[in-house]
Write a structure and sequence with these properties.
By secondary structure, the protein is an alpha/beta fold. The chain folds into 3 domains: about 325 residues, ABC transporter type 1, transmembrane domain (ABC transporter transmembrane region fold); about 160 residues, Rossmann fold (3-Layer(aba) Sandwich), CATH 3.40.50.300; about 80 residues, P-loop containing nucleotide triphosphate hydrolases (Rossmann fold, 3-Layer(aba) Sandwich), CATH 3.40.50.300. Helices cover about 60% and strands about 10% of the residues. The protein is built from 19 helices and 14 strands. Strands 8-11-12-5-13-14 form a 6-stranded mixed sheet. A hairpin with a 2-residue loop joins strand 6 and strand 7. Helix 9 packs antiparallel against helix 10. The chain is elongated and about 120 Å long.
Length: about 625
């Protein structure tokens, strides 16, 4: 594993230098429901015109729907029981009006559904764009301290959760409010007494919704967190499946998965049960209200205070009044899940980005390659310094080798040089200029990097090599491959340079992936090379050929080599022994051997072990 990372327990490769991950798990930061909902609503700003059209259609649809119960009541009153006759003209008109009303409602509902679906997808697209853009701006430390699976869960599951709620609930929310107000007005016009009777159940509905929503809000938040943990475990397991099988840890992995999955099942079950309580209890309350309306309405009809048609209309209006209340209660309940997902998305959007380049930062196209570390201190935590008082210089064209035990600080030094992290104290210079005075983009273009853990993207071999220089021609790609001794094996592949690589290049051997990474670095034509165990994954014969190519590549360029195989760095201009975050020894191979210090013992112990092998 990498240097200087404590509590390492996640083994997923990341784009950047190899480094362990201090997995702190999902950080729960409860937020105010109203504030989160308000922030979520801000994403609707780009859809104002569409929302206005939807709102207009909802008003028209609600008005059409409100006429339905009135037409039903008039149809009932068209039949005079006292006179034993039927007003067929009025009945025909009412039935025709009722038919038109229902057909119009169906058409308007379809149009609303289409507009809401398209609008909600655009809103969620913007949210997903913002989140992915934010991820590109976050510092490496964020990815070192968060599970990749949990991050992907927020980008996919949590945003999809928001999308589903928006598309299903938007119309219900708007139409529900209008229908409730319109139905209440019509009910008061028909019979104030019956209106009062039907409103008795409203406080019960309000109290029920509030109590259940409070419980389900916490449960849905926990459900999303457990889902993120599960995704993190799955992503980690799939990425390291060869390691799992090599150490026969299938059963252990299954048990870990079952544990997380059981927790997800438990919290999800509780969330769904409490959520499912709402509608059945609401139906019981509604039936009580209908019974009260029917009973009181019957008494009023017997006393000739209202007609049977009014009772029929009132029952329909009462149902229209209560149904939106049920829907709004259900919407508010499901909204808890969406807000839980939105909170997790906003947590990332609120993360501190990499510090902005200073306004007067310089853009550099080419550098000489002189490097200097001056009194550099660095720690991943403010109270613990990983590097302590690092001082050294590297002149243009020199090869600097960093050696030492795992966790000593070798990788951290080159992380500071490339500004994946910024120093806590001290300064790092390139060509006599503090690297913080350069823009990050232009600074990093000056480096060519080959990591021990090679990462290849899904795509062709040619595209992966050109990742180092997108403007490179096919001839330049082949030349880089030849210098890295990758050309011969590429030619033997079914489609040569157009062969499609699977995720992380898993259809190639580790050595072949390393050769492609070296070719990619060669193509960048960098001023400074960083080789992090660049030849550790290839056989001895191939290593010798790569070293020949590297010698050509390193000619005239400043090179930093992190190496555990000390025989590969004998010709380095300067070897630095890093231990416990400090430079304990520095000099050429011969100087350090003569000194008979740590390097001397490291070298001869390694040589002795190789001889015994």
């Amino acid at each position: 594993m990498a240097d200087n990372k404590n509590n390492i327990n996640v083994r997923v490769p990341i784009p950047g230098f190899r480094g362990g991950r201090r997995n702190m798990g999902p950080v729960e930061r409860p937020k105010n429901f109203k504030d989160t909902l308000k922030r979520l609503w801000s994403y609707f700003g780009t859809e104002r015109k569409t929302l206005m059209i939807i709102f207009l259609l909802v008003i028209i649809d609600s008005a059409v729907t409100l006429f339905g119960p009135y037409f039903i009541g008039r149809s009932v009153d068209a039949i005079s029981l006292k006179g034993s006759r039927v007003d067929f003209n009025l009945l025909t008109i009412m039935i025709l009006a009722l038919t038109i009303s229902y057909l119009s409602d169906a058409a308007l509902t379809l149009i609303q559904g289409f507009l809401v679906a398209s609008s909600s997808q655009r809103i969620v697209k913007n949210m997903r764009d913002n989140l992915f853009f934010k991820l590109q701006k976050l510092p490496v430390m964020f990815f070192d301290t968060n599970s990749h699976g949990d991050i992907m869960s927020r980008l996919s599951n949590d945003i999809d959760n928001v999308s589903t709620t928006i598309s299903q609930s938007a119309i219900q929310l708007m139409s529900g409010v209008i229908t409730i107000v319109g139905s209440l007005i019509m009910m008061i016009i028909l019979s104030p007494i019956l209106t009062f009777a039907s409103l008795i159940t409203v406080p019960l509905v309000f109290l029920l919704t509030k109590s259940i929503a409070r419980k389900t809000g916490k449960l849905f938040k926990n459900q999303q967190m457990e889902l993120g943990r599960l995704n993190g475990h799955i992503e980690e397991n799939i990425s390291g499946i060869h390691v799992v099988k090599a150490f026969n840890h299938e059963e252990k992995t299954i048990k870990e998965f079952d544990s997380i999955n059981n927790r997800l099942c438990e919290v999800g079950l509780k969330a769904q049960i409490f959520s499912g309580f709402l509608m059945p209890i609401m139906n019981v309350i509604n039936n009580i209200g209908f019974a009260a309306v029917a009973g009181i309405g019957g008494v009023l009809a017997v006393k000739d205070m209202i007609t049977v048609g009014v009772i029929a209309s009132f029952l329909s209006y009462s149902r229209q009044f209560v149904r939106p209340l049920n829907n709004l209660a259900n919407v508010f309940n499901t909204l808890q899940s969406a807000v839980a997902g939105a909170e997790r998305v906003f947590e990332i959007l609120d993360e501190n980005e990499e510090t902005e380049d200073a306004a007067d930062s310089k853009t550099i196209d080419k550098i000489k390659g002189d490097v200097k570390f001056e009194n550099v201190y660095f720690g991943y935590r403010k109270d613990i310094d990983i590097l302590k008082d690092i001082n050294f210089e590297a002149k243009r064209g020199e090869t600097i080798a960093l050696v030492g035990p795992t966790g000593a600080g070798k990788t951290t030094i080159v992380n500071l040089l490339t500004r994946f992290y910024d120093v806590t104290k001290g300064r790092v210079f390139i060509d006599g200029i503090d690297i913080r005075d350069f823009t990050r983009d232009s600074l990093r273009r000056c480096f060519g990097i080959v990591l021990q853990d090679t990462y290849l993207f899904t795509g062709t071999i040619k595209e992966n090599i050109k990742y180092g220089n997108l403007a490179a021609s096919d001839d330049e790609v082949k030349m880089a491959a030849k210098m890295a001794n990758a050309h011969e094996f590429i030619k033997r592949l079914p489609n040569g340079y157009d062969t499609i690589l699977s995720e992380s290049g898993s259809n190639l051997s580790q050595g072949q992936r390393q050769l492609l990474a070296i070719a990619r670095a060669i193509l960048t034509n960098p001023s400074i090379l960083i080789l992090d165990e660049a030849t550790s994954s290839v056989d001895t014969r191939t290593e010798l050929r790569i070293q020949e190519a590297m010698l050509k590549l390193m000619d005239g360029r400043t090179s930093f080599i992190i190496a555990h195989r000390l025989s590969t760095i004998r010709e380095a201009h300067k070897i630095m022994v890093i231990d416990n975050g400090t430079i304990t020894e520095m000099g050429t191979h011969d100087e350090l051997i003569a000194k008979k210090g740590k390097y001397y013992h490291m070298y001869f112990n390694q040589f002795k072990n190789s001889e015994e092998a």
